[in-house]
Amino acid sequence: MRSFLPIYLRRRMLALALFVLGLVGIFAAEPARADEPAADPIGAYQTTPTPASIPGYTKPDPEKATSKELATAIDAVAQSSSRSYFSINFVWVLVAGFLVIFMQAGFALVETGLVRAKNAAHTMSMNFAVYALGMFGFFVSGFALMCGGFNGTAIGGPVTLGGLPTLSHMFTVGSSINGDHGWGLFGTTGFFLTGSAYDGAAIVMFLFMMAFMDTTATIVTGACAERWSYKSFFIYSIFIGGFIYPIFGCWVWGGGWLAQLGYRLGLGHGAVDYAGSGVVHLQGGALALITAILIGPRIGKYGKDGKVNPILPHDIPMVQLGTFILAFGWFGFNAGSSLAGTDGRIGIVAVNTMIAGMAATLSGILYMWKVVGKPDPSMMCNSMLAGLVAITSPCAFVTPVSAFIIGAIAGVLVVWSVFFFDKIKIDDPVGAISVHGVNGLWGLIAVGLFSDGTYGAGWNGVGATDYLGTKGMGVAGLFYGDGKQLIAQFIEGGVAIAWNVVVGGVIFYALGKVLGSNRVPAEIELAGLDVPEMGIPGYPEFIPTVAPEDVPASALEMADGLSVPRLRAQAQS
Q1: CA angle at residue 197 from 194 to 199, to 5 degrees?
Q2: pLDDT score, position 87
Q3: Where are the alpha helices (DSSP H) in 224-260?
Q4: 137 and 220 in one domain?
Q5: Quick one: which of 43, 147, 364, 373 has the fewest CB in 10 Å?
Q6: How far is it, in rounded angstroms, from Cα 308 to Cα 76?
Q7: Which residues of 279-298 are buried (b: 16+ CB within 10 A; e: fewer)?
Q8: Would the pTM count as exceeding 0.90?
Q9: Phi, psi (rounded to 5 degrees) for 551
Q10: Domains: count for the chain
């Protein structure tokens, strides 16, 4: 039937309809659509094309263009807009990754300030070198083991990197939104960033994930400070980046079996760990726990009568400056974990992060003021960091009021934890086990309690009814109607502790046997590790010397868990 509309009006209405369809295509299309960044030997796409650079595009005349010409033009605009969309995500994730890498400076300052001056160069050098050591392990094998099964992320990639092998076919029951990879034990592609990992989006992901891994490796240096052999540290850090961290990371963030607890077993959305209270902090805390136990306490820390002898930090202002740097970098840590600058939730993530840190600081100060009589600058720093660790997993799923509660609990919990580990004679010079381990576990539990269901539809393949996530149930905790989510969170926490204590402990123990000891000799520990281990003091005006024959037997007797005769023999040799 002939239309009564003028031809020019029909054409304009057709153009408008095609334009709307093009915009819908940008935001609602599946992750594998053709106009996304594709694998390219020179690193995905290099520039954002203009419509004129799209093959087959010619600028149409609205008055004369055919429907086909208008459709081609709209498709060109859609491709250009789509690539701009992903370019925004690329830049966002890179900048967030840079902030997380800058946190390494904060960790270095905090840990170095909390030890004695005679060990400053050694502690700072561990924090400095762990960046390269962990990255080396992650570059060689860690990224492949952790992320080698990715089939796409909000960044705009990576493209399909590979598959996730299984122990046997019995683990392949069910299917995921990205295709069935079984239960996902570890990835198999991307070693040395080769093959399909040589892609612009995949390499952006590598940078961001590497920065997170390095945080885990750094946590151990604090717990073992002032007595860890640099040679042992050097080798162990490579194992963390290349094997220990990425295997568990795959299980939660790489499409592995913990992430699949939701759609396979009905446990909420599976293990939900937005920015890594578990993957990053609890792993680091569990490694810190087992290595601190195996390496033993510092000489003189605990007396025979069970008395705890305080070993004072040498530079509190350094500790506080480092804490502020960490708090600043944490915005990249948490908000950057959206992997998309186009995710409107990042503002809530940032504010929740800030509020939890504030609440933890205040609760820690007030608690110490009440119990000890003084606010204690070092403990207020640990309280702030504990709040930031605790909010790292739930930051995207909870309200600001819940973030305040989570942080306030963390600020006191870390104090209790520090006192507890001293009571059972596990020496942790910087409180790493309490800050990262205990409060990393609390952060996982908080997801299962306080998540309100307003965000996370489709998380781990659960609860999505459309690509925009505007329908369906987001991540919800016990207080909002889903007690099964809490079960998934406890499973993640238990597995994180078990994996790192057992595997990390076995590797650490074996390394000590191969090297002779993970610990420096007694005379070096008493004199200070800077000159004997590093060749230069942290402070030239402070070079303590202790002759072997002057090592007091009483000090050696205080080293609980160590072989006192062996230490005495070392001191006298």
Answers
A1: 115
A2: 81
A3: 230-239, 245-253
A4: yes
A5: 373
A6: 71
A7: bbbbbbbbbbbbbbbbbbbb
A8: no
A9: -70, 120
A10: 2
Residues 410 and 486 occupy one common structural domain: yes
Specify the higher pLDDT residue, 520 or 41.
520
CATH code assigned at 284: 1.10.3430.10
566 confidence band (pLDDT: 50, 70, 90): very low
Domain membership flag for residue 542: no
The residue among 68, 84, 100 that closes a domain is 84
Q: Find where tokens 């987001």 sit.
A: 474
Instruction: Verify that 212 and 349 share a domain, yes or no.
Output: yes
- What letters, b where the CB count within 10 A reaches 16 and e where it falls short, cover 510-519? ebbeeeebbb
Please tell me whether residues 452 and 335 are part of one structural domain. Answer: yes
Whether pLDDT at 12 is above 90: no
Q: What would the pLDDT profile of 386-418 be if each residue is shown by its tens digit?
A: 999 999 999 999 999 999 999 999 999 999 999
Instruction: Classify the phi-psi angles of 229: left when phi > 0, otherwise alpha if psi is within -120 to 50, otherwise beta.
Output: beta
Range of the structural domain that residue 64 is part of: 7-84
Q: How far is CA 368 from CA 179, 320, 382, in A?
A: 52, 17, 12
pLDDT at position 439 is: 98
Query: Of the candidates 64, 84, 104, which is a domain's last residue?
Result: 84
Q: Is 459 left (phi over 0), alpha (psi -120 to 50) or beta?
A: beta
Say which range, 137-146, 257-266, 316-325, 461-470, has the weakest mean pLDDT.
Answer: 461-470
